[in-house]
Write a structure and sequence with these properties.
The protein is mainly α and 121 residues long. The protein has helices spanning 18-29, 43-51, 61-66, 101-120, and strands at 10-13, 35-39.
Length: 121
């Protein structure tokens, strides 16, 4: 989908923090200013609003992947062209700190999922 189609279109979005700000700035640099009809922090809430017909949404690939949208006939996923800048996700922890088994496993899962998504990208 061409980014220009989003100019003036109704859109459900995350609050203007972190990556949302970067994404909206990238759109604006290309002359695209969607009409934000609602902002909410939850990915599932954004998806519910799109299902209800309130507007479209631009979500990170990780959110789309985790919601199993492919099996949802009420939603259609389109890659944007040109693509917005990539989203960066970081894992941080205190230096010289030992991880609990649960923390170590969470890190392994995050790395595995990020690798799987990068391979599909």
């Amino acid at each position: 989908m061409r980014l220009a189609r989003l100019d003036g279109a109704p859109m459900v979005a995350h609050p203007p923090i972190c990556d949302q700000v970067r994404m909206e700035q990238a759109l604006a640099r290309r002359g695209v200013r969607p009409h934000i009809v609602c902002r909410t922090a939850g990915n599932e809430t954004v998806l519910s609003m799109v299902r209800a017909g309130m507007g479209s949404a631009i979500l990170p690939q990780l959110a789309v992947h985790s919601a199993d949208i492919g099996s949802d006939a009420s939603l259609c996923v389109h890659e944007l062209r040109p693509a917005p800048p990539p989203r960066e996700i970081f894992l941080l922890w205190q230096a010289r700190r030992t991880h609990s088994p649960l923390t170590a496993r969470a890190i392994e899962i995050a790395v595995e999922i990020a690798g799987n998504i990068a391979e599909r990208g």
